[in-house]
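Re: beginner question about structure tokens

> Can someone show what the tokenized structure looks like for a real chain? I only ever see the sequence side.

Sure, here's an example I had lying around. Input first:
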Amino acid sequence: MHKDRLYHRYQELRQYVGWSDDDTGRLKSLRPVLEPHFRAVIDDFYAEIERHANTQRVITGGEEQIERLKGTLRGWLEDLLTGSHDAEFVGRRYQVGRRHVEIGLEQVYTNVALSRIRSGLIRVLVDYWEDEPILLGGAIETLNKLLDLDLAIIEDAYQAVNAERQQQSERLATIGQVAGGIAHELRNPLNVMKTSVYYLRHARNPSAAKTAEHLERIERQARRADGVITALTDFSRLPLPTLRPVPLAQCVNAVLEATELPANIEVVVDCPDDLPTALADATQLQIVIGNLVRNARDAMPEGGRLSITGSEIDHQVVLSVADTGVGIPADQVARIMEPLYSTKSRGIGLGLAISRAIVEKHNGGLSVSSDPGRGTKFTLRLDKAAQ
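And the corresponding structure tokens:
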């Protein structure tokens, strides 16, 4: 997290716990009481660590490392009680949390470790408080607020690192998924080309027609492989949309005019004249609608009905594209919009992935529902353009 954002967050947390000028004033009275007893609190803390395998396992350097860590903990306590809680201070506390993640200490042990330190410091205050007894309660309250704030920043660091690791894991999983899809889509045409090359190299006196047939196969499969690479390149370079008011009916008509639909498919379009315009990029929106229409067509090889309906729901412009085709198996619906995932025997499975990516860049949504054997409906939701 950026240092300025982190400090702003810390300031918000201070307000949340009710940190006041009284706490700032009381903080000055804490250090003289606590500092002479830091060593006892620290020794108790590490003695407890040695009694637990899950915390002891992060200490790999023996007594020498423990002594270094005790010095670090003392510095942490001194830093805590200086009263100079500026952006640099907050940044240092944040790094403590990140360091705990790096050494493999589970967050739960960080929480209980701070609880152990808290108990030790409060015990020192109770045993050695020399000011008015009535002020002790306020001093303990200030100490608790201070430690709670520290724990919140450390937990923030844990969550940030865990989120980074999750994102990295998801990126690696996506890379693996994409790599597997590319391998599958390119291996098929390559195998066909290898078979034809083998024939042309080893056939005895092949006829001109046979030679031409295999050369045509090689050229056709080369075009198919090039199409895979082109589709992937287009997907990765998808530009940001230029958002303007767009009539959905206009986009639907343009797509239907450009798409070949067999005579055995009945097309029903219901986009009311008073339907609000959508805030969209007309070119990219036609790509989405085109993909949905072609998918519906391909799902009805024996014919059926293609229904395209526009409506306004919850201040959004909604377009549904439904077919009466074969449907999508329940175990595949959740994956249907993943890159390189396809239920078709041909095609590389990027149409719906591109459509979802376009819709997300429009701050909209694309969902699917399907009833195997009865049909599928895709629902596109977009923001309304300002009237």
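Each token stands for a local structural state, so reading them left to right follows the chain. Residues 136-202 form the longest helix (67 residues).
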